[in-house]
């Protein structure tokens, strides 16, 4: 096991003009933690996922649409995207987010 290292989330990923950038921090059977950086106007089209996911905005502003309902998020805010509900994201301003997806099922 590696030693724990304190890091700033925002410093772990950079913006690229006209792009969406991602960096996986944890990828385990139980779930993933991924950082994303979206340039202004970029986004992810509507899709569904079979697991709950939490989006935490590290920087900037985003619109997160869940089942047709728009939610405006700013840095420091989070939202839960429920499993099997259509969702999409769009950068109101360039933004960075941490996506935490839990894959495990309750027994």
From TrEMBL:
UniProt domain Cupin type-2: residue ranges: 36-102
InterPro entries referenced in this protein's UniProt entry, alphabetically: Cupin_2, RmlC-like_jellyroll, RmlC_Cupin_sf
Family annotation (CDD domains): cupin_HP0902-like
Signal peptide positions (record): none
Name of the protein: Cupin domain-containing protein
Native species: Desulfotruncus arcticus DSM 17038
């Amino acid at each position: 096991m590696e030693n724990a290292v304190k890091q700033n989330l925002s410093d772990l990923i950079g913006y690229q003009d006209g792009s969406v950038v991602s960096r996986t921090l944890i990828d385990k059977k139980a779930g993933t933690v991924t950082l994303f950086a979206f340039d202004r106007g970029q986004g992810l089209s509507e899709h569904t996922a079979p697991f709950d996911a939490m989006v935490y905005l590290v920087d900037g502003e985003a619109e997160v649409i869940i089942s047709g309902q728009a939610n405006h998020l700013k840095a420091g805010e989070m939202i839960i995207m429920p499993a099997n509900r259509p969702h999409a994201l769009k950068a109101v301003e360039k933004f960075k987010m941490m996506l935490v997806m839990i894959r495990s099922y309750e027994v």
